[in-house]
Amino acid sequence: MLSRLSLRTRLVLGVIVLAGIGLVAADVATYTSLRSFLFSRVDNTLNQVHTGIENVEFDEGHAGPAGLGDEGAVPNDCVSLRTTAGKVVHAWNCGRPFPGAKAASPPEVPAALSLPARANTQRGDHVRFLTVESKEGTDYRVRASIEAQHPGYVLLIAAPLSSEGNTLHRLLLVELLVTAAVLLAMVVLSLWIVRIGLRPLRAIEATADEITAGDLSHRVEVANEHTEVGHVATALNTMLSRIEASDLRLRRFVADASHELRTPLAAVRAYAELFSRGAANHPDDLARSMSGITREAERMSVLVEDLLLLARLDEGRPLEREPVQLDELVHEAVDAARALDPERSLELEAEPVTVLGDRDRLRQIVDNLLSNVRSHTPPGTPAGVRVRREGDRAVIEVEDSGPGLTPEELERIFERFYRADASRSRASGGVGLGLSIVAAVARAHGGRVRAGSDGSGATFRIELPAA
Prior knowledge:
50% of the residues lie in helices and 17% in strands. A hairpin with a 6-residue loop joins strand 3 and strand 4. The protein has a 6-stranded antiparallel beta sheet. The chain has a 5-stranded mixed beta sheet with strand order 8-10-11-13-12, with helices on one face.
């Protein structure tokens, strides 16, 4: 049921319940303490009365203890001597009716002696204090004791508790009023405090509604970063920034992919139109059309495969993990690059290094780096490849002697569909995904890739965890 209530309602209810428990506990403790104090004071008064009459003999037919005047006891006190069976032997100042007794009779407490009694170690007297109610409704405090000089008899001394009862009643009334007032004030104060405290959450809610409508540029205003709500707002703003950046990358990615696919699709359509206009009757035009369609289809196939690979890497799909002799793999890639570009001087320095990874993907990043050298450096420009171990890292470096990269190009070189030389890359069939795949595969292996340039030539450095 509580789960259906709002956070504000639950907070206020929690505060009120805890405050109510605390106030009731304080009221009970105060009431109990005051009652104990008042009864203790009455008990002391009854003890004083007993001290004044403990050595006085009760004369037969006398209205009170012999030798005890009116000033010897509190006027409202009642003193009586009775047998353990309850028969009244003597009574003094007992004109008020007591429960279970007629007028001029003391309170009936036959169970007083059967209950555990408090022993007086000096005289061996048994004493018990009781609270009884009269027929009039007034409570009395009764001291019942067995006196040494009256064996077999019970001496009762009683005093009304009307004053103490009135005091306790007023205290109870005051406690109820104060408790109700405090709880009401706490309800109002809690609602006000919770309302102020939840105001940033309402701002977050409003921002979330705006974001749901499609506007990712909104941010939550953070009043105090050190509060819990401030932490939530900061985390939400960070998340929104990442979502907005991701959305922008996705939009740019889709736009770039559409742009890259538009060119080969337009070429395929042009060749198809050429074929439909009669190229089938001209062998040269037919061969050119079929060759063009095949070439553009292969280009689209490469683009789609690269996009699928990047999508799988973004999803975090696990790669094959096996020991790979990195120096041998790089040697194979360099031999293939030399066969593709025999006029280029390509030096290799390789130390034995082993890594755990996907052999095909690792070969792909080396091939992409070497393809980047062929695409972005003049023909015949020398390049070098180095493989070595540095501590617990395996390092691959590919260095060329081309025109180099500007600071802006270095910053964006690993972005998808980015070309440092767009015309040259497109002429060579590139779509700007090669270095993006290099970076993604390196990250998937727990490594990283960096690019550097001093204005003449560029160096790409890949670091992977060594086995």
